[in-house]
Amino acid sequence: MTNPQGPPNDPSQWARPGDQGPLARPPASSEPSTRRLRPGEPGGHAQEPLNLPTQPAQQAEAQTEHLTASHAQTRRPGRATAHSASPDPTVRPAEPEKEPGPVKAKRRTRRDPLTVFLVLIIVFSLVIAGLIGGELYTRHVANSKVAQAVACVVKDQATASFGVAPLLLWQVATQHFTNITVETAGNQIRDAKGMKIKITIQDVRIKKTADSVGTIGALDATITWSSEGIKESVQNAIPILGAFVTSTVVTHPADGTIELKGLLNNITAKPVVAGKGLELQIVNFNTLGFSLPKETVQSTLDEFTSDLTKNYPLGIHADSVQVTSTGVVSHFSTRNASIPTGIQNPCFGHI
User: Which domain, by its residues, includes 328?
Assistant: First the structure.
């Protein structure tokens, strides 16, 4: 695009003293755009208006100036944009700065005493719950094993329980059990009906060897035999004549005897400790209508009581016996007994 032709002596607007180049903006002026500056005047003061061309020439000049200014304005940002859009490849872009505010907040939250205290309480509660659960499970397993062994020996249902202190977990870890209590249902011991046993076991140390599982420091057992149980046991021990020989059992605590009354006889016997078990020694024997040798009856009673109260494992033996108003109470015990293996006695195979 070219500037319109002006007077021959009129310098072009591109060569004004105040301009910085062909792309510089024309200076703003409050006077009309038709006035021009002379090249020699300082400060670019306006000159008196000259005789301008006709109206079409003035419009063309104004349009040219407008387009030139617009072109300069559009080229300048373009250059700046191009210059800013082409970064130096050797310069790495700066990483965005991290905001330390949230990190400090998190650190403060972690260091909050209340939060730390709550975390410790939760951890402590979980540990306690784990210990309680482990203790209960260990007690259940241990009680079942001991009760199963006793039930196998006495032929009756049994329940076992370990002492409260120390914790059973600690006893299992050390293989040293301080106190165990076992009690049967009272239905029978072997073939002795109505006989019940309560056992207290102390100082059990598990140390498996070829012929032993461990040792028992002390075992004490209290056996009660009810009068009704004695009657039923004697009836079962004497075939056919049992019901006739013993229909009623009466205890006499004063002289320590029991009386077996039947339809045709009356037997008075005294429970005593014999060997490792108990025996019923006949003190008085009366028969009505038929003769039955006393020795025969005594032999039958001895055989019966021997099977019931002797040959217990662990070296358990009878210590004492006492007649009460409800039956007979005896005490059995053993000390420093060796626990047999499952091969020696199948009842101890689960220990």
Answer: 186-340
